[in-house]
Amino acid sequence: MPEINNVIIIGSGPAGYTAAIYAARANLKPILVSGFQPGGQLTITTDVENYPGYEDPIQGPWLMEQMQKQAVHVGTEIINSQVTEVFLNEDVKKLNLDNGETLSTKTVIISTGAQARWLGLENESKFQGHGLSACATCDGFFFKDKEVAVIGGGNSAAEEALFLTKFVTKVYLIHRRDKLRADKILQDRLKENLKIEFIWNSEVTKLNGNNDLESIDLLNKKDNKTSNLKIDGVFIAIGHDPATNLFKGQLKMDDGGYIITDPDSTKTSIDGVFAAGDVKDKIYRQAVTAAGMGCMAALEVEKYLD
Fold first, then answer.
1. What is the number of other CB atoms lying within 10 angstroms of the CB of residue 209?
2. What pTM did the predictor assign?
3. Which position among 138, 232, 278, 281 bears the catalytic label?
4. Is 217 one of the catalytic residues?
5. Which residue in 11, 201, 220, 243 has the most C-beta neighbors within 10 A?
6. Is 295 a catalytic residue?
7. Catalytic annotation on 47?
């Protein structure tokens, strides 16, 4: 008979590692399957200034490395593999891994996160953390007294642009259409803010710079003309996609694919299955809130097993 584990955590990052730490300290002998990007989105984030406990900015990859080491130190087993298939509806859940292994477990914590949608430009990855970001709340402070652009036309883009005006001297809001999809109240606030300038009917076609982003090329879709805009930073705000394809058809999700949990809980629609972090949170999407939910999930697993 295969070994039946107490809890398996799918995905790393602040939610997964925190869940592992709490579960290990409860002597549940957790297994964490790290996924294709161990450490999650923070591994492509440079300076982190808003995670509590550090006076000076820290590096995102370093923070994830420390969380991983802490999880292992208290008794977590980490498998560097990816879950390819899940069977969650039975009392004993089964997970198939891409290394050919099958794991059995009484409970599952899903912390597979979400990923920002990027533009798909050729040199995008080069500038991530070097002038290109998908999180104004995370990185806006680093552009104090500089000029930045926000790409997008929905609520996220509007909120990012308004937030950035606290720090920067100018925000160019670039949208591929001639009107925004954002809520009317947000649009009114954008128009009233003297730091915000709209660039309509335009798409970013190229990111330019040596080590850091220095300018962007824009294509006007009406006259088909290309222009260059000197800029200190660009924030992509065209949405996020939760990593939930693996669980579709088994767990309840909202229209955006985010896992639905009970109020004030990480419990999903299936007994013994819990979800923490950006995989269920489309509002805050912060490392500290993800870590808090990882703690909640582990405590709920412990209670469920009791």
1. 16
2. 0.78
3. 138
4. no
5. 11
6. no
7. no
